[in-house]
Design a protein that fits this description.
The chain contains no helices and 15 strands. It is mainly β. The protein folds into 2 domains: 149 residues, no CATH class; 68 residues, no CATH class. It has a 4-stranded antiparallel sheet with strand order 3-4-5-6, with no helix packed on it. Strand 14 and strand 15 form a beta hairpin. The chain is elongated, with a radius of gyration of 21 Å.
Length: 217
């Protein structure tokens, strides 16, 4: 997937949408050049979606790639992509796995004009329809309930200042709580010293087990 900004770009920018097998539901950390067959853009939030299909010796993989910030210029590293394949059969033969590889485009999007509504994705499986039982050739739908909003803090209040003990130079003990975001079951957590999160002091791995209270200097 490439990007060209009208009036600004002088060459195409590779957005590095190259998933690993693990990201597509399999096992493997090497990046793969997958084939893309459809693209859609959320008009109210700018999220970019693209259907993909990929096959290797372990089977077929398909789904929709998603980038929340496709227009952002990244100074170092690459844009962040995730790959939506929940509910699909992956790492399977062509007879049992879905394949979103129809042309001209296998993807459509609706519900994207209003920031308060979820974007709904529609993808067509490349398999002849069986009208009798509907088991093959299915039209698949995915409702994206996380692209436009973030979890809302319930404590500590947003933009609040946490008090610190002047004797030991540590912040008072506090607990972060937030409202559950649609069907989310887990979260990535980062604590930083700046709004741009360039100076991260705590990352998700630091919270996998309960952290003991820090006492004294």
């Amino acid at each position: 997937i490439y990007r060209w900004v009208i009036g600004t770009s002088t060459s195409w920018k590779d957005l590095e949408a190259k998933p690993t097998l693990t990201q597509m539901g399999g096992t493997g950390t090497s990046k793969n050049d997958v084939f893309y067959y459809g693209i859609g853009l959320g008009k109210s939030d700018g999220t970019l979606y693209a259907t993909y299909a990929y096959a290797d010796s372990s089977g077929w993989y398909t789904g929709v790639a998603r980038c929340l910030t496709p227009a952002v210029e990244v100074c170092c590293g690459a844009l962040v992509w995730d790959y939506l394949h929940a509910g699909l059969t992956v790492k399977a033969s062509s007879t049992s796995a879905q394949q979103f590889n129809l042309e001209v485009a296998s993807l459509d999007i609706c519900g994207c004009l209003d920031a308060t509504t979820n974007s709904k994705l529609w993808a067509i499986d490349n398999d002849p329809y069986k009208m009798a039982d509907g088991k093959d050739g299915t039209l698949w739908a995915y409702e994206d309930c996380v692209a436009k909003v973030a979890p809302k803090l319930t404590a500590v209040a947003d933009k609040a200042t946490v008090a610190a003990d002047p004797c030991v130079c540590f912040a008072d003990v506090f607990t972060l709580t937030w409202g559950r975001l649609c069907s989310a079951c887990e979260y990535d957590i980062q604590v930083a010293l700046d709004k741009g999160f360039k100076q991260i002091v705590k990352d998700t791995a630091d919270f996998t087990t309960a952290m003991p209270s820090r006492k004294g200097p």
